[in-house]
């Protein structure tokens, strides 16, 4: 693979990646696509779903298809920051001289699965989120850059909240997309059983490598976007603020705080990538509609009334899109 690609190559490679990952992941085409969009945008994803829905398999398969290094970190309350970023250890050479040597942690990989991130203490969560933001690790005043591409997919289990440390809203905002994994249908369960309990297990093929992903990330940022599309994204994000005059009634009634400017950045970048996946080299308002739910659902802070009446952020985002983008 070369270090530069065309829009046509981008579309072909991305569709092939989706197809190969789909050999292992059943019935989650939207999740696969949104995960790929997050990776190509240079962001990180938060995946929420009950155990056993293939979250680990998704990242492992994606790493296999992209021929990238994969690591998994199982977050627990006793996990320390040094356990994930690495630490200096004292070693002795053959001559008896002692020195400190850096032992890298599991974040020194390309694709990292942060499993059940809400089970770790805030101190460890902060260390992980700093790595996600900076793409570097600082230990004993020495900063080490991580290899690109670097992508973190963090998972949360929505069922067991006892003994967990929910991510603060400011930390949630650092995730490019939040993806909700739905339970499979009967037919999808049958397909899962057929693929995983027989002798022949599907084997995804390697489609690209790290340099290809970096080239795709660079190309996606160069996709042109018309001023009226950028303005539509700005109006959508601005309408999430309950104090704004243009905010719909549902926002004024149920939302305490709206999206930060990061929501705007996610909408624009995702819109560009969705356009490329659709074979177009310009982003449109329709692309913003597709990007809005995963880009905004974790950036709206609802009030008590919304929780009491069972109003979800997805419902609010859906009405926002209809009111603003129509």
In short:
The chain has helices at 7-21, 29-40, 55-65, 81-85, 122-134, 169-172, 186-196, 210-221, 227-238, 249-254, 261-277, 285-296, 304-309, 313-325, and strands at residues 45-48, 70-74, 86-92, 98-104, 111-115, 136-139, 142-145, 151-156, 177-180, 255-257, 301-302.
Describe, in plain words, how this protein is organized in 3D.
This protein has 326 residues and is α/β, with parallel strands linked by helices. Helix content is 46%, strand content 16%. The protein contains 14 helices and eleven strands. It has helices at residues 7-21, 29-40, 55-65, 81-85, 122-134, 169-172, 186-196, 210-221, 227-238, 249-254, 261-277, 285-296, 304-309, 313-325, and strands at 45-48, 70-74, 86-92, 98-104, 111-115, 136-139, 142-145, 151-156, 177-180, 255-257, 301-302. The protein has a five-stranded parallel β-sheet with strand order 2-5-8-1-9. Strands 3-4 form a two-stranded antiparallel sheet. The chain has a two-stranded antiparallel ribbon with strand order 6-7. Helix 9 (227-238) crosses helix 11 (261-277), helix 9 packs across helix 14 (313-325) and helix 11 packs across helix 12 (285-296).
What topology emerges from the helices and strands here?
Layout: H1 7-21, H2 29-40, E1 45-48, H3 55-65, E2 70-74, H4 81-85, E3 86-92, E4 98-104, E5 111-115, H5 122-134, E6 136-139, E7 142-145, E8 151-156, H6 169-172, E9 177-180, H7 186-196, H8 210-221, H9 227-238, H10 249-254, E10 255-257, H11 261-277, H12 285-296, E11 301-302, H13 304-309, H14 313-325
Parallel strand pairs: 1-8, 1-9, 2-5, 5-8
Antiparallel strand pairs: 3-4, 6-7, 10-11
